[in-house]
Amino acid sequence: MQQSELKKIKQKLLQLKAELQTLEEISLDTGKTVELDQARTGRLTRMDAMQAQQMAQESARRRRQQLLLIEAAFKRMETGDYGYCLDCDEEIAVQRLFVDPSNTLCIKCAEKI
């Protein structure tokens, strides 16, 4: 992988990280506990609120997982292991890394899974 390509991918990772952190800050209150006060809200409204809460919590979990993958990609860049498949140690196609810079597997190993 060329230095210019690595620089572009690093920029993309930084941008993705910033977007995920912004989303995390924006959605902090959506995962709060649903109030079950029957005098103030109806049963269906509470069910909708509980469903929205569960969806928000799952979205937050996925964002945190993606942030961990991004941090792992930065660490691999520091050690010189970035761009190589964690399974077969072959080089990952640059186009694949441009699509998702946190990819850890080449296309062949990813297809096996």
Topology summary:
Elements lengths: L2 H24 L16 H37 L14 H6 L7 H6 L1
Helix pairs in contact: 1-2
Describe it for me?
With 113 residues, the chain is mainly alpha-helical. The protein is 65% helix and 0% strand. The chain is built from 4 helices and no strands. The two termini are 25 Å apart. The mean pLDDT is 87.
Proportion of helical residues: 55-70%
Number of helices: 4
N to C succession of SSEs = HHHH
How large is the share of residues in beta strands? under 5%
- Which blocks of ≥5 consecutive residues have pLDDT under 50? none
Through-space gap between termini? 25 Å
Using only C-alpha atoms, the radius of gyration works out to 19 Å
Q: Indicate the overall shape.
A: elongated
Mean pLDDT: 87
Largest sheet: none
Q: How many runs of DSSP E, i.e. beta strands?
A: 0
- Category by helix and strand content: mainly alpha
Task: Name the features.
113 residues; mainly alpha; 4 helices; 65% helix; elongated
Give the gist of this structure.
This protein has 113 residues and is an all-alpha fold.
